[in-house]
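Support request, please re-run this one:
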Amino acid sequence: MAAYLKVPVTTLYQWRHNGYGPRGRRVGRYVRYDPDDVRDWFAAQDDGVA
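Re-run finished. Output below.
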């Protein structure tokens, strides 16, 4: 997901800690993301360009 969104992995950890970002699921000690959830979340973001 970090590569897809072009953000550092630490940013993903911060987002998850703050309740922001696409829904992730724990699989053992790892967090996994459904690609459809990531695309839907990304599409719903407002880029702030006026």
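The CA atoms of residues 26 and 33 lie 9 Å apart. Residues 35-44 form the longest helix (10 residues).
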